Amino acid sequence: MWSVRILTLFPELFPGPLASSITGRALKEAIWEIKAIDVRDYATDKHKTVDDCPYGGGGGMVARPDILGQAIEENFISNQNEIIYLSPRGELFNQGLARELTQRKGINIICGRFEGIDERVINEYRIREVSIGDFVLSSGDVAAYSLLDACVRLLPGVLGNGGSLVQESFGLDHNYEMLLEYPHFTRPQNWRDRQVPEVLLSGNHQLVENWRLEQAKQKTKEQRPDLWNRYLSRKEK
Ligand code: SAH
User: Fold this and answer.
1) Most exposed residue of 122, 131, 151, 183, measured as fewest CB within 10 angstroms of its CB?
2) pTM metric for this prediction
3) pLDDT averaged over the chain?
4) Could you tell me if the CB of 133 is within 6 A of ligand 1?
């Protein structure tokens, strides 16, 4: 079972949306588990304070290293699993990192709120900082939903049809690797005078495959020139 331990100020947010649909079914089937720990349980004063003003001044509040450290030591499974702090200044999360994280027995996550956490905690526990994109959220909890969803659907047995994992955007299929997904169509065949592309009705697998690869290339070229250039340079090797 893939084990998630998550430190947060709002444990009631978990499993949250992850309890529905695909990730929810996997949770019920015990393919993965999640334990959300309230950092406030490790506060030592009667007001349950977990943060304080930053040294050097400036606005916001910073999570205290002593309290966070205690919560980490008592809850994280850290000899095999990485500790991740969700933070906008971390390395960018992507499908490769999701795959890497699912190779382990689980994951430990720290969700920040307010200004962030004391830098010494990051160094003390060799924490890996991960960002889900170049924008600033008000909490790490929302970022954790994305990261966990991306990981859980990769766990063995979670997606019934193995094929759908291989061909989607950023998938593993060698033709489609680094390409965005081709467009999909379903019934009705004619909707508001918009027809489903002929080739998809042809029943000819090879033609369909060729068309999809062409479409995937087109989409990638238009939407993500960065991915397109990487795709081209890989092909040349
Ligand atoms: N002062 C910080 C931002 C704090 S945002 C800075 O400028 O870097 C509050 C919390 O939201 C952070 O502690 C982090 O856990 C989370 N967060 C915000 N944006 C994020 C992102 N893009 N990816 C992952 N976590 C994020």
Assistant:
1) 183
2) 0.92
3) 93
4) yes
